[in-house]
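Researcher: We plan to redesign the surface later, but first we want a full-length starting point. Tokens attached.
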């Protein structure tokens, strides 16, 4: 029967000051050498003890390590998580704390990439492979690749996202996922594909958000979904925003023509609405000021002429009537 293990939680711990331990260990090392030299001259049995103490002191010196600001070290002793050091500076820890297998695997991966002619990744993956189980706590940026996805209507669109993230819980990032950076990248792509399928590219239902028209709403929804997915890896998402959005090349021309047709229709509606308002205003002014009395037939002819003049695309050249009103 398998027992499911719950998520790990970070425990902040303190370790001895590195400068103090350096002075103590160097003093012990010098004292050991001095006793050894004295013992050799006096041929005392303490020489054997000094010989045994020398490698011990050298091993203890390897426990010295430094942490930069916004950097942490996860302390693992023989497979047991002992805590995380977050305080920057010069420290000393148990020399048997695990240094992590990541450094060797990173070197092997980089060597294979060079042999295959691929460009090695120098952005975030190398920080994950720092020695001594060190993890960067700085904010990082993932500039996602352009993906081809389907929107809610099924139209293929191209979309890309940029995500600003950082490690919040080092224990979860180290122990709950195999590689938190690869996990973060894969979950970002998965969340982006899922999000795109929930929205129309444009022209959605009444009051419904769209990918193109409601960027802030879509970005906030993407950030919330990413935060939910990445919480397992101890990652906090500070910001997620779309950086590229366009129709796929195979339908781009068709959609462009559709948008142009919609723009022409909207413009025509505006022109007709304005023309009708102007004709109504002209007839009302003529009737109120009694400039001229028009019967229904003459009024219809006037309306027709005014609509042609106001709605026509080309310039209209009027014919001036020099005779009487009805000639």
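Model: Full-length starting sequence:
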């Amino acid at each position: 029967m398998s027992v499911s293990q719950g998520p790990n939680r970070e425990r902040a711990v303190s370790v001895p000051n590195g400068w103090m331990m350096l002075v103590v260990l160097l003093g012990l090392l010098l004292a050991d050498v001095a006793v050894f030299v004295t013992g050799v001259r006096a041929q005392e049995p303490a020489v054997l003890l000094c010989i045994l103490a020398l490698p011990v002191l050298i091993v203890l010196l390897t426990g010295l390590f430094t942490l930069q600001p916004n950097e942490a070290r996860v302390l693992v002793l023989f497979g047991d998580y002992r805590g995380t050091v977050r305080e920057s500076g010069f420290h000393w820890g148990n020399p048997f704390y695990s240094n992590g297998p990541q450094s060797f695997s990173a070197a092997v991966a980089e060597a294979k990439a060079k042999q295959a002619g691929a460009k090695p990744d120098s952005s975030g993956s190398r920080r994950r492979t720092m020695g001594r189980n060190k993890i960067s706590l700085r904010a990082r940026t993932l500039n996602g690749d352009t993906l081809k996805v389907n929107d809610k209507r099924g139209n293929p669109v191209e979309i890309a996202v940029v995500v600003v993230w950082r490690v919040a819980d080092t224990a979860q990032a180290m122990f709950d996922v195999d590689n938190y950076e690869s996990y973060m990248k894969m979950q970002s792509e998965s969340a982006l594909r899922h999000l795109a399928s929930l929205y129309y590219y444009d022209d959605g239902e009444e009051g419904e958000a769209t990918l193109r028209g409601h960027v802030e709403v879509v970005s906030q929804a993407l950030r919330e979904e990413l935060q939910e997915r990445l919480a397992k890896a101890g990652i906090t998402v500070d910001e997620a925003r779309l950086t590229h959005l366009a129709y796929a090349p195979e339908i781009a021309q068709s959609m462009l023509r559709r948008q142009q047709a919609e723009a022409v229709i909207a413009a025509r509606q505006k022109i007709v609405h304005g023309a009708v308002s102007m004709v109504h205003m002209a007839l009302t002014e003529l009737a109120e000021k009694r400039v001229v009395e028009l019967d229904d037939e003459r009024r219809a002819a006037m309306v027709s002429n005014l609509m042609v003049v106001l709605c026509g695309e080309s310039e209209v050249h009027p014919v001036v009537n020099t005779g009487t009103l009805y000639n």
